[in-house]
Amino acid sequence: MHIPEGYISPQTCAVMGAAMVPVISVAAKKVNESFDKKDIPTLAIGSAFAFTIMMFNVPIPGGTTSHAIGATLLAITLGPWAASISLTIALFIQALLFGDGGILALGANSFNIAFIAPFVGYGIYKLMLSLKLNKVISSAIGGYVGINAAALATAIELGLQPLLFHTANGTPLYFPYGLNVAIPAMMFAHLTVAGIVEAIITGLVVYYLQKADEENILYKFSYKLRGDNR
Amino acid sequence: MKKFYIAAIVIILLTPLGLLAPGSAWGEWGLDEIKNMIGYVPEGMSRFSEVIKAILPDYSIPGFDVNFFQQALGYIFSAVIGIAAIVLIFAILGRIMGKPQKKNG
Predict the structure, then answer these.
(1) 3-state percent breakdown (helix, strand, coil) of chain B, nearest 5
(2) Which residues of chain B does A91 touch, with a Cβ-Cβ cutoff of 8 Å?
(3) CA dist., res. A211 & res. A229, Å (int)
(4) Containing domain of residue B66, as a range?
(5) Which of A35, A78, B72, B100 is least surrounded by CB atoms within 10 angstroms?
(6) Contact check, Cβ <8 Å, A154/B34
(7) What is the ipTM of this complex?
(8) What is the per-residue burial (b if ≥16 Cβ within 10 Å, else e) of A133-163?
(9) Percentages (nearest 5) of helix, strand, coil residues in chain A
């Protein structure tokens, strides 16, 4: 769901980038308040985990691929604001070094993957906990809904392009498929396969982290799961 | 700690599994694929497609991607470079975050 360069108009890139400015500045403030310098490796591991998990493409029926993003997992273990920062940095590196997602489209991609996904996923996780589901199941459901929310946002941004930006005779200037094509295609890939993979990874890691003891370097990831503040 | 590093290395070495899925992600096609699909390349797409040139495009080493073995090595190399870049950025952020007297650094 990384939007490549040229798929959305510069105007769309500007709007989405502008939308991310307040998110990132609030996130930076919150992270600076609630994390210490010694927590930096924890944030870096979260970011590196998301980066790596996105390299595991999975086949989608019909000959395309998709992948998990780890966004809800980061939101549950680090908090949604720190997840936003960690995911944005992973997306920045993907765009800069590997051409995965455009640099101009970084605002849109981080809006979808580093804002919508972790916050929706986290909200659903909290909702499921309040319904007395256990943490593993709640996190898996959160992961499933979070990645699908991001996929829907991506599909809408792409599908609006031919509607908003075309030549005088109606030829699309950027992404050529409308909402009627983009939404079903993106949602099919994520509702059927990528969402399930995201749910399983999220649930499994949460299950493992709950068991991590203090010797484990990943113990720092589990304080929120244990209900401690720090 | 040792177990963590072993797990991390195993995950990185397994990343080429991600190469086995055939095709592109929906909505992430190259310009040639777009041309095949709709018969032309939208003007804005070709204008902006290469604003910057990636050093390791699509997680591969340019010119070293003719067979699966090379692609897999390029993919693992890309994972290592990407993780190193992320660690570097966080190291820089760690230096500039907060006030030193308030943060334990």
Answers:
(1) 60, 0, 40
(2) none
(3) 18
(4) 2-23+55-96
(5) B100
(6) no
(7) 0.93
(8) eebbbbbbbbbbbbbbbbbbbbbebbbbbbe
(9) 70, 5, 25
Domains and CATH numbers, chain A: 10-226 (1.10.1760.20)
Minimal-distance CA residue of chain A relative to B91: A40
A38, A98, A167 ranked by CB distance to B54: nearest: A98
Q: B47 CB near a chain A CB, below 8 Å? A: yes
Q: Three-class SS of residue A214?
A: coil
Structure-block tokens of residue A181: 């094509």
Count of domains forming chain B: 1
Task: Judge: B49–A66 Cβ closer than 8 Å, yes or no.
Answer: no
In angstroms, what CA-CA distances link A1 with A25, A106, A130, A150? 24, 12, 30, 8
CA A121 from centre of chain: 9
In chain A, residues with a C-beta closer than 8 Å to the C-beta of B97 are 31-32, 35, 37, 40
- Partners of residue A182 in chain B, C-beta under 8 Å: 27
B38 vs A contacts (CB less than 8 Å): 176
pLDDT tens digits in sequence order for chain A, 230 residues long: 999 999 999 999 999 999 999 999 999 999 999 898 889 999 999 999 999 999 999 999 999 999 999 999 999 999 999 999 999 999 999 999 999 999 999 999 999 999 999 999 999 999 999 999 999 999 999 999 999 999 999 999 999 999 999 999 999 999 999 999 999 999 999 999 999 999 999 999 999 999 888 777 788 788 778 776 55
Question: What sign does the dihedral A24-A26-A80-B14 (CA atoms) show?
Answer: positive
CB contact under 8 A, A64 and B24: yes
Q: Do B48 and A5 touch (CB under 8 A)?
A: yes
Q: Radius of gyration over alpha carbons of chain B, in Å?
A: 19
Q: What are the structure tokens assigned to A230, written together?
A: 């720090």
Contacts of A140 (CB under 8 A, 6+ apart): A199, A200, A202, A203, A206
